[in-house]
Amino acid sequence: MRRVEAGExxxxxxxxxxxxxxxxxxxxxxxxxxTVGELQAEFRQMIPVDSARWHRxxxxxxxVFGPDDxxxxxxxxxxxxxxxx
Length: 85
Fold this sequence. Notes:
This protein has three helices and two strands; from the N terminus they run αββαα. It starts with a helix and ends in a 20-residue tail after the last helix. The chain has helices at 2-5, 36-44, 51-65, and strands spanning 10-14, 17-22.
C-alpha cells in the first residue's frame, strides 16, 4: 500500500488473468481547468489543416472504397444481412 500511495500502479491477477487494477486514490486531486487563453495557445501550436489536400485525399479514398454516406446502410452493398438467415 505504501508503494501505491507513492504513485505506483499494480495489476492484480488470478491464475495469470488480470482481474483488477490497484492505483492511487484520485479523489483528493483537484482537476485544473484550462483557461480559454491556454486552449487557444494549444490550438495555435497545432499543424494547420490543408483543406484542399484533405478533399483530394477523400476523393481518392472514395474512388477506392466508395463514398461514405452516413445515412446509407452498408449491408445491402453486397453484404448479406445476418438477421435474415
